[in-house]
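Internal tracking record. Fields below are filled automatically when a chain is submitted to the structure queue. Please do not edit lines marked as system-generated. If the sequence contains nonstandard residues, flag them in the REMARKS field before resubmitting.
Queue: standard
Priority: normal
Entity type: single polypeptide chain
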Amino acid sequence: MKNHTKVLILAAGKGKRMKSTKPKVLHELAGKSMIMHIIDKCISSGLKDIYIVLGEHKQQILNIIKNTKVKVISQKKQLGTADAINSAKKQLGEFNGRLLILYGDMPLIKEETIKKIINNTYNSFSLVGFLAENPKGYGRIIKKGNQILVIEEKNANKEIKKVNLCYSGILCGPNKEIFKSLSKIQKDKISGEYLFTNIFNNLSERKKLIKILTYSEDELIGINDKKQLSYAEELLQERIKLFHLKNGVTLLSPNSIYISSNVKIDKDVVIEPNVFLGNNVVIKANVRVKSNSYIEDTYINSFSEVGPTCRIRKNTQIGKNVKVGNFVEIKNSQIGNNTKINHLAYIGDTVIGTNTNIGAGTITCNYDGIKKNKTTIGDNVFIGSNCSLIAPIKIGNKSFIAAGSTVSNNVDKNGFSIARAKQQIIKNGRSKFLKV
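SYSTEM-GENERATED OUTPUT FOLLOWS
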């Protein structure tokens, strides 16, 4: 059945109410743009033939969706939803299957809902609605005998405005019949646009069977401004956290934790308050992430402990039973099993072996003003407190770096390195040099 359904996503709107130079559908929820949320949901639902209608911000959106197989259609002028769909007539007009019409600013629709809409649509039309607590601004679904109509808010009288059964904008039905009805739509006298909702007048006149499918309002909200974007983020965060809680993750203060949509967390992981988990984070079983930590693009293996108050960023892999303590920053590095970086350190562009200790205040000096250089630290190495390792540099297995050293040359296996200025003690020097 899915192979006989094509999807048309409308994403040509200017999004003026967002008050942003960024196209509306590129604003992000849980670390992913709205348009990619809807595309990914279609793909995971088994839908392979996806088309998208774009307008004047076409190039910016193309930069985001370029790695998908979505086919792009241009709407030259924004003359309403019916005109946007009609822009696809050349590509879709002769298709004999079903057409599912979705919107790029409706990122909270669930995969199972898309499947239900398709499975409930055979030779009929499925009109998707919801019961709104506050229906203001939405088109109302009106039943008149065997007729089903949608009346836009701007065209509604007082009685119709009291109706709380609202139209989401989503429609699924026989493709050719949709385009046949589109050809009959006239320009709306009030808005000057071709309103897609007028299609239901024509379908009813032609006695086409229309079914109303209702789902949660929170799942079908469209996002038009920053307030709605913020509300949608709250809803999505609640959904993401509930998923992880059900899968055995402990969230000690869920409302203070942020989790991006593609984060993967195994059971028996504990996340403490005020933790930010950005894109591409994988956390294996029995890890504890302590408070106030910011982590992105990182793999953390089992039984490790991270934080409190650490920052771990892109391309970092942390092994098993590793301790990354407070005020530690790690970037683009691999940390071996059983290694400890307990506090106040910066590790960048570095490979560290197993069973190694990195002392407090240690930094890898990876940037020389032109390029980033690599540090390699072996197994069973002890690096004392307050050391500077000037990359590129290699520290061999079982070597020892004395506290306070600035190390610029490689250290061989079993080596001992100390690099400090000679200490001088001047008798009665305090009064001499400080003049006290």
